[in-house]
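Lecture notes, unit on protein representations.

Consider one protein chain, 366 amino acids long.
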Amino acid sequence: MRTEELLQKGERLRSRSDYGGALRRFRSALRLSLRNNDTEGALHCHMAAGDMSRMLGRYKDALTHYSDALVLSRKIGDKSLQSDAAIGMGLALRGMGLWRDALRCFGRAGRHLTGENDLPGKAFLCWAEAGAWRYRGLPLKAIELLKETLSISKRLKDREMEGFSLNALGGASRVAGLNRESLRYYERANRIFTGRNDSFGKAYSHCGIGNAYRMYGDYGTAMSHFRKALVIYKRIGDIVSSAYTLWSIGQNYTMLGRTKLSERYYLRSRELFRKTGDVRGMVYFHLGMGQECIQKGEFKKASGLLKKSLETAAEYGFLLEQCHSRQLIRYLDRVKSGKVLTPPTSSCYNRLGVNIRFDGVPFNIP
């Protein structure tokens, strides 16, 4: 079978969100390209295999493929593909929580994007950068970039990019405390991806809608959407998104005071965060379990978990997660000292310009 045929089969599987099957085809195509000394073919295979590895949470494999693609794109002098490879590397690093390194990759990619013909690349780059700034803890900056992405995608009539822009806007809006806007963006994305029969986009929007309803305190509706997302993620093998959905279910149960169930889902999320090497995900695990231990009166264990979340968030520069950790630690200190449980100041959130209010435990972490 020729390289082109394997690539076409892989693309068909990718379009059906069968990332594991697509990756196998792309790797077969890569071996054939290397055997035939087909530099351009190998370049495209590395890019495709990098994308699929990233979607499956295999970030180190993705980085290897993107790095090889970058070398080959420089060899043939294709600046557009150099940009794509650099963005891919940035997305893999972002998935690992390394937002600083990701932004450096995105900066390199941006130098190759100039002119009207690069609008699709510019939209993709803005979307990618927005995610890094959200990880940094600056969702308002992310929203600004995503609105630009949304505008370009509408101009290009690119419904797929429009849907992903809306999903990302939903997430950035939620962590900024803009719950109404978050739900609206996710619902718009869901309509687009349902119409396109895009499994990944549909699952992502269901998880987002679930989180939006969780923030409104409608935990039953939230759970319904989380379940829909999990079913799809399991079918397509997306452990990255599954991990955050499992954590969200744990948080849902935390808000309901059902500590046994919340612990079960937090532990399941930890298993996947560890598998993908997602340090930011581990911060959320410690935050969730810390709250659960406060609810059970296990204050010493809660203190250790929350200190761990703060240490990791500070080490990697996650500003919002540092705020969450500090608020819960201060609250726990007041509980242990027997002081009146007036909520700690929200000045940490105010400095970031986000509309988040801490009212004690359980704290509905956005």
